[in-house]
Design a protein that fits this description.
Shape: globular
Strand content: 15-25%
Order of helices and strands: EHEEHEEHEHHHEHEE
Distance between the termini: 30 Å
Number of strands: 9
Strand order of the largest sheet: 6-7-8-3-9
Number of helices: 7
Radius of gyration: 17 Å
Structural class: alpha/beta
Largest sheet: 5 strands, parallel
């Protein structure tokens, strides 16, 4: 199926013999992802764990298409992603892949709500009542008019999560999304993500270096 067609869905993401090019000369320890066959299926939850430098952020960026410095093959359904055009990638990122990078990529001069609306105004995916509910549940409703740059890193993570949810997706990619959250906020974030993923029949791929997203029934994968 063509990623530009309205009925397109990413049913699975398959990695075959993939390896970050930086690891080619250095070598890589035994992994369930690198230099093997790994499949992520829509509708399931995955937790990818590895020590720092294991390639977690690289993996997320490869799947999102923002980096291509790897060897091997990455496929959406049966389509080699190296054959996708820029227009097809743009549609995939708008409709099928949500992404929360470790760096968050917020606009520090914009307020919390402005950062969220910047995304949601483009997608028209959720209404203001839903955004207000997420802000309240994640404990940052009182910070809605605060510039993102003046929020704590934990508050910024919660803001960035809400922004990531403001689009349709077949998979949501979360790179260490709760690294600065306590267990209560971690659990709330996991519940919100799970609810939205279930509503869309979507898959969740989250990475962790020691403070994992508390998703129920997640399949653990080691890098």
């Amino acid at each position: 199926m063509d990623p530009i067609k309205s009925d397109y869905r990413i049913r699975q993401i398959e990695l075959t013999d993939m390896l970050p090019r930086v690891f080619v000369k250095e070598g890589v320890p035994h992994s369930q992802v690198w230099l093997t066959s790994c499949v992520f299926q829509r509708g399931r939850h995955y937790l990818v764990e590895a020590p720092s430098g294991g390639g977690k952020s690289s993996l997320m960026a490869y799947i999102y298409g923002s980096r291509t410095d790897y060897q091997g093959t990455l496929r959406f359904n049966s389509r080699d992603t190296s054959t996708l055009s820029m227009e097809q990638w743009q549609k995939i990122r708008r409709r099928h892949l949500a992404y929360l990078p470790q760096e968050l990529d917020l606009f520090p001069e914009l307020t919390c709500i402005e950062n969220i609306r910047l995304k949601n105004n483009l997608t028209q995916h959720v209404n203001s009542r839903q955004i207000d509910e997420w802000l309240e549940r994640l404990g940052i409703a009182s910070r809605r008019d605060t510039p993102a740059g003046r929020m704590s890193i934990g508050q910024q993570q919660r803001l960035a999560l809400i922004r990531a949810l403001c689009q349709p997706f077949d998979f949501i990619l979360l790179d260490e999304p709760v690294s600065h959250l306590d267990s209560a906020n971690n659990l709330t974030a996991a519940q919100i993500i799970s609810e939205e993923a279930t509503r869309q029949g979507a898959g969740v791929i989250s990475t962790s270096v020691g403070n994992p997203l508390l998703l129920h029934s997640a399949t653990n994968i080691k890098l």
